Amino acid sequence: xxxKFLKEYTGWYLVYFIIGISIVVLFLLYQLPFDFLLQSLFxxxxxxxxxxxxxxxxxxRKQEIIENFTGEIKGTELNLPSDLAYLALLxxxxxxxxxxxxxxxxxxxxxxxxxxxxxxxxxxxxxxLSLMSQTNQLSQTEVxxxxxxxDNYMTNLLNYMKLSNQTSDFxxxxxxxxxxxxxxxxxYRSQFLQKExxxxxxxxxxxxxxxxxxxxxxxxxxxxAIKYSQNKxxxxxxxxxxxxxxxxGIGILPEDLPRLFDEGFTGxxxxxxxxASGFGLYLTKRVLTQLALSIDISSQIDQGTQVRVWKK
Length: 312
Known about the structure:
cell membrane, phosphorelay sensor kinase activity, phosphoprotein phosphatase activity, transmembrane helix, EC 2.7.13.3
């Protein structure tokens, strides 16, 4: 402790030593009585000793407070302007650390919810494949359908991770959106055939965007259109200053429309039919926002849903 004390106040004792030497030199130069010099040095030495004792115990107390620091400073030992400045800095760092910890905990809770929901969704197609295997009723169309669902859920999780970690790599280029739509229709061909849905693609639309991410966003919309369409109905896609996808499905409740893009929100129809994961439209909205595109959804129960994507 004494070594720390001397390191802390070396400058003060050095100044005292220099002043003492200066006084001795002055006494010698002016040939003043040596008794006066001794009395001066003795008096100042006593004051220095008293000041040193007080300062040492004060320093020791401050060191004990700092070494046993638990987040709060009690007492008045740390009341110098420099002490208060350090305490203010510590308080700011503490608040920043608490905010960061809170953000990490919140993100961890979100991830736990995501993984739980994702694992629950994965069980459905896996259970369907397992049942088909056990009953020896493997339908190629149904197997492809369930595998496509697994692939979509996996893609959603990976894209969710990328967007959450801000690792998305966007490469903008001029895109013929009709070509993207045609490729997506081919991807979902088995589902169109299974529900006997007709498809009508009208118009053309060019937009400067990222091909991979735009394809992902539109795939979520088309997937929903197929899932919630009634059998033997039609899906119409208009391409003119944007993309408008119209289905003749079960529709969406008016009270659910404002929350469709909330994370994890499935709505009444999603819960009733156990088809929604709560991530498709949430991720679609996030991706389109980063692509500087807008999305709007309108719907009527038992008549269908219309989704429009356009350039802001």
